[in-house]
Amino acid sequence: MKYHISALLLVSALLPFSASAAEWKQLFNGKNLDGWKHVGPGSMTVEDGLIHTHGGMGLLYWTGGKVSDCTIRVVYKMRDTNDNSGVFVRIPEAPTEPWMPVNKGYEVQIDNHPETSNEDEYHITGTLYSLTKPLAKPGKPGPQWNTMEITLDGPRTIVTVNGEKVTDYTEGQPVPPKKFDFEPARGRRPDAGYFGLQNHSDNDIVFFKEVAIKSLK
Question: Which of 34, 83, 166, 189 sits at 20 to 30 Å (Cα–Cα) from 114?
């Protein structure tokens, strides 16, 4: 198991965290944002047992330290047919603003249901934003619930949405060049990193009801 010591110390203080690889550990308690920290514009609140995005662009990250060799499960829904958000992974250090995670980590996209999207395939739910094409397009529009699982297995990142694999990317595989200035810098990401949830803008409202993690070991 490769959770960093700082992660273990914090989670042990907040949650009954065991070493069993067979169990999901809930990182959102449904009541408050203990164990999480927001950086950048906008905010996140807990309302009716759900994490609610407000404004942006900001990031709510888990303060327990870097994680690796694990699966992160996020259950979310968009308020509207399409709303923009994302789950950031492989962030190399604790963020103090929202753009370092964009350029140094990966954003697993939440946005653009393919039936109504004007974006290309590199910007569909479950892809590594602007870097990978989807293997499938199972994302449901709002207000339906979606389950996203992101597996970090050494240099390999696997994403499933609603049980279907969307991304299977290993560091070093080719990616397209940047099309826009706001797209992430290209380059290798670390095997271990922080992760967090994005609040994108006033017009993009997303709700999260579960954030959980399970070790691969």
Answer: 189
